[in-house]
């Protein structure tokens, strides 16, 4: 199964003036295309030829550097294009906004920490907003690694990723990566990011430990309690905390009394 490059989900000039048309054309049509072509070469005729991109990325460290770099490059860029949109930006709302405020204190504090992660990533790489152990965290990865990989230093489910390779911004911003990171907030597709977060919430609702119905008890109006519930649920499910299940049952009783 050969991988192919999908078209951009918008015109190459749709993100102007924040990301210029020429950068988008080169970034997508040349750089991303090269990752796709090199990934196909790396898996041709091997046992990995018919595996999904997700499987290749998840096991990249066990396969080969070529699959790690080019499979990661293909996955990361596909994710990146969908994270951007014309006439976007602003602030998230709903559950995602509540989760950001709970994890970082405010949207502005989140932006500052995210920009720092992107700015301080040495050389080339990515900055990420991920869900890890039931809460939002910020991380960064080198080269074309991502938090889904078996080799990631910080593993989690990404819901936002920003490319900080120079090819993503050099024509317009030269060596001013902080200026690029400041500008990119104007084109972040918060609707897509929120969809990814909602998908994570739904997936974490099943399966539950016996006798527990997580989604029925999830307090939609109180994200602090929801995050605490998710953390305890994960700890109980994966045996990371001996007293997690009793604490989870206690929280369930409290929520039932509130309902």
Question: What does this protein structure show overall?
Answer:
The protein has helices spanning 21-43, 53-58, 60-63, 65-82, 94-104, 107-120, 170-173, 177-184, 190-203, 214-217, 223-238, 244-258; strands spanning 125-132, 135-142, 157-163. With 259 residues, it is mainly alpha-helical. It folds into 2 domains: 21-196, minor pseudopilin epsh fold, CATH 3.55.40; 204-258, no CATH class. A 3-stranded antiparallel β-sheet has the order 2-1-3. Strand 1 and strand 2 (135-142) form a beta hairpin. Residues 206-217 and 237-241 have low confidence and may be disordered.
SSE order in H/E notation? HHHHHHEEEHHHHHH
| Gross geometry | globular
Strand order of the largest sheet: 2-1-3
Q: How would you state the average pLDDT, rounded?
A: 87
Strand content: 5-15%
C-alpha termini separation: 51 Å
Total helices: the number is 12
Quickly count the domains: 2
How many β-strands, per DSSP?
A: 3
Helical content stands at 40-55%
Supply the CATH class of the largest domain.
Alpha Beta
CATH topology of the largest domain: minor pseudopilin epsh fold
Radius of gyration: 20 Å
Query: Spans with pLDDT under 50 lasting ≥5 residues?
Result: 206-217, 237-241
Largest sheet: 3 strands, antiparallel
Secondary structure class reads mainly alpha
What's this, in brief?
The protein has helices at 21-43, 53-58, 60-63, 65-82, 94-104, 107-120, 170-173, 177-184, 190-203, 214-217, 223-238, 244-258; strands at 125-132, 135-142, 157-163.
